[in-house]
Structure formats: C-alpha cells, structure tokens
Amino acid sequence: MSYHYLLDLALILLSTKLLGIFTGKFQMPRVVGALLAGLVLGPAMFNILSETEFLSRMSELGVIVILFTAGMGTDLRELKNAGKAAFLVALCGVVVPMAMGTGFGWLAGKAGWLPGNTLLENIFLGTVLTATSVSITVETLKELGHLDTRVGSTILAAALIDDVLGLVALTVVASMAGLLPVLLKIALFFIFAVITAAGGIRFFRLIIARAHQKNLRRYPVFAFVTCLLLAYCAEEFFGVADIIGAFVAGLVVACTSKADYIRSKFEPLSYLLLTPVFFAGIGIKVELPGLSGGLVAFSLLLLATAILSKVAGCGLGAGMCGFNRAECIQVGTGMACRGEVALIVANRGLSVGALSQAMMTPIVIMVVGCAVLTPMLLKLAFSGHSGASDKKNALAGYYHRHEELEQVSDELLSRKSR
What we know:
Elements: H1 4-24, H2 30-41, H3 53-72, H4 76-81, H5 83-111, H6 119-128, H7 135-144, H8 150-175, H9 179-210, H10 218-236, H11 242-254, H12 259-284, H13 293-319, H14 325-334, H15 340-351, H16 357-381, H17 383-417
Helix pairs in contact: 1-2, 1-12, 2-12, 3-11, 3-12, 5-6, 5-8, 5-13, 6-8, 6-15, 7-16, 8-14, 8-15, 9-10, 9-11, 10-11, 13-14, 13-16, 14-16, 15-16
C-alpha cells in the first residue's frame, strides 16, 4: 500500500493556504488561491501533482459538502421575501448568460477555436456562465458603503435565487445527454425530494424536541447521513447530479432550529480539508502546454462574454423593476463575479462527458479573471455616487455636530443664569 497520498494532501493544504493568504492581500477569495495552487503544482506548471483516484474521490466528497453547507445557509424566508426585483434580476441573470454562452460556443466552433465541439458542450458552457459568486461583491460593497442600499440588498437576494436557478439549469442540461427518459427521472426526483424534505423536516424536529441538550453531537451525524443518502439516491436512481441531492438535504436541515449548530460543525471539515482539495483538483486538471493561440483568444473572449452577459441580463431585470440606468449597471456588475458554483458546474460537465478537457482551462481563466476584475468594475460603477454620498454624509455630520454645540451652549447659559 502506497502512502504517497498523504504527501499529496500535505502539499495541497499547504499551497492552498499560502496562496489563499496571498490572493487575500489583493481582496480576492481563497478559491482563487486554491485554483492557483492546483495550477502551480499540477501539469500546467511544475507537474508535482497529478490526478489520482483518491484525489478524485476526495474532490467529489468535497463538492457534496460544499453544496450541503450552501443549502444549510440558504434562508428560505429571505428567498420568499426577496420580491419581484431579486427574482427578475436572478432569472434574467440566468437566461441571458446561458443564451450568450451557448451562442459564443457555437461561434467559436465555427471559427475553428473549438474544433469538434457539440451542441451539448455549447449549452453546458452557457450553463457555466449562469453562476454567480457574491463573496467578492459583498466585500467591495462594504468598502464602498453601499451594502445596505437598495442595490446591495437586491444583489444579495438575487445571488441566492441565482444559485437555486443555476442548479436547476445544471440538472436540466446534464439530462440532455439521456434525452426524454432522463427528463422523466428528473421530474420523479423532484417529487421524491419534496416528499423526502417534508418527512426529513418532521424527523429532525421530532428528534430535536425529544433529545436532551447534552446530545447535540448526534444532529450533525444524522444530517450528514441524510446528505449522503439523498446524494446517492439522486445519482443512482434518478440520474440527477449528486450535488443536487446534497443541496436538497441542506435545505431540509435549514428548516430546523439546529441549522446553525449543524452548519458550524461542517464548516471546519469543509474549510480545512475538502474545499481546498476540490478546488486544487480543478487546477490540477488544467494543462496549459496544450493552450493554442486560438484557445487563448477563446479564453479572453469567454471572460468578456461572462462579464457582459451578467451586466446585460441582471441589468435588464433591474430595469424592469424601476431601477435607473446607473443602478442597473451596478446590479449587473455586482452579479458578474464567478466562483465555486461555476467550477462545480464545469467539473460536473467534465465528469459526464458534456465538456471536453480542453474547455477546463478557459473556464478557470474566466473564473480567475472575473474575481480580479469585478472589484475594479464595481468601484468604477459606484465612482460617481460614492463621492456624492460622502459629501452628503459629511454635511449631515456637520449639521449634527453644530446642533450638539448649540445644545451644550444653551445648557451653559442656563446654568450661568441660575
């Protein structure tokens, strides 16, 4: 028995941590650092690590836990209260990028940049572009002081709905490889998911009501068993991606009173081991020596399409809800960042044969490029408004201090008169 996998894990965890710290200095998420770690250690650069069966299994478990924790972190009440604006922004932010991504893939195939590409691959490329990662946007909006504004609230709510719609799109597109029989299985799975969710919520609430406070450790075990069973059933019996089953399991847990506690127990496992292995594994699959001039041009144009499609789609949805032109651009720019969901969709396409290995390199370049460019574009989008907001706040502060001085002066005069 070889123990080389221990060295592989050590190298992955160390490199993802160091490069995560490095990318954090530039206000980029640690997912970019993990991707860079895979690129540096994999065949793309130094070829120290290569894809193994162990790393593949760990990556699959990692993506299951990522979607499970994402489901637990989804606030269903917030989704219900998001309103018309967030739903339209998310819907247009899925439909327009999918259409533009599919059309772009078809044009690239006609131009010879992607020889042998298929319609399914083009549609899957469009599905990759539907994803939104809002973590960078949140940090940038905090810095600019616009997180609690109408635009900021719409972006946050739309990002939650976008993730759900993106997973639905992934399920539908992945099923196209099997045509109508698989579509029937998908419909059956969603019926099964609703019934299981209702039963699971009652089960969790029952054991929570009867269990003693000291037995909290049993909840994460039951939750993880539910996650693995739903992931298995989704893949094995219904032909649906296992990550969909994991996400449904997360939604079940999110409806219980112990959701925050259970999620807190899974986050260390995800942060310390599974998430770094998954994202580094994506980078390890990339082979840059095979990157031709046409593929370089394709990667840069894919990056431009990714940003423009979100600005156009989400901006259109915002405009339909009464936002002005500047606010539409701000909402669209805030939704333009891609991250872990895009990579999860791409990895799924690769595993089912819908995406070719050569397509992974442009997708990774697109994700990293969006992570770098989104903060810059957001600052430009708010540049004309931040100054006015700062002046307004400064003026309000001046009048507030002036009123305080007048009150102190009145008190001193009243004491002197006494």
